[in-house]
């Protein structure tokens, strides 16, 4: 039988292409948007990671989601440093989720509270992506807006506690392959992963509307 890590990867491939090539992402990576758009995007990420990480402690003992809860992945502290750099010390007061972001964070929290397998789908979609394509985004952001390499503004993309991302991803895929669930539950997790991608794309769409391209 196909390992779960390749099942979930293949099943979300199409959505990945869609997210990657969304207008907002393309404009952002193409250097066609200002740092304000990047800051607004970073704010949206704060809500998503707050939902993923404020619930993580409770899931640490869960047999399905527990093995995925790894402190070296946590991004919230890094996001907060980036936001202080991007928005200034009052960043928290100005924070507001787009409706699409609120819907995304609500769904993550709902899974965390009621369905550990669903939480795994969201965990995979964000953290494995950050360890992969996130590095491309960091490189472009540093160049476009002059952040110090791996410094304030792009700390979200820097996993200080992970010396070898390729090895970490290999281990992570091993964790996916070790998920104890029957085929039906695995299909449900895969469907939630597709949903997680769709929630990301919806945030990109909303950001694209807020920052229509001028160049
Ligand atoms: C422009 C933006 C993006 C770029 C350039 C990008 C690029 C990549 C690349 C090159 C990989 C392959 C890494 C490898 O095989 O080790 C990857 C994997 C991945 N990306 Fe993205 N990505 C982007 C956006 C996203 C978004 C928005 C999400 C979801 C929120 C996402 C989620 C993932 C996931 C889950 C994987 C792991 C697939 C697997 O091996 O199982 N990516 N990305």
How does this model look, in words?
The chain is mainly α and 215 residues long. 67% of the residues lie in helices and 0% in strands. It has helices at residues 4-11, 13-20, 23-29, 35-54, 56-59, 76-87, 99-114, 116-131, 134-145, 165-177, 183-210. α4 packs parallel to α7 and α4 packs antiparallel against α11 (183-210). The longest helix has 28 residues, at 183-210. The N and C termini lie far apart (49 Å). The model has no long low-confidence stretch (mean pLDDT 96). Protoporphyrin IX containing FE binds at residues 9, 16, 19-20, 25, 29, 124-126, 128-129, 132-133, 136, 169, 197, 200. The site of protoporphyrin IX containing FE (HEM) has 17 residues, from α2, α3, α8 and α11.
List the helices and strands and how they pair.
Elements: H1 4-11, H2 13-20, H3 23-29, H4 35-54, H5 56-59, H6 76-87, H7 99-114, H8 116-131, H9 134-145, H10 165-177, H11 183-210
Order of helices and strands: HHHHHHHHHHH
**Helix vs. strand class:** mainly alpha
* Mean residue pLDDT: 96
Largest sheet: none
How far is the first residue's CA from the last residue's CA?
A: 49 Å
Count the beta strands.
0
Instruction: Tell me which ligands are bound.
Output: protoporphyrin IX containing FE
Discrete helix count = 11
Shape: globular
Strand portion: under 5%
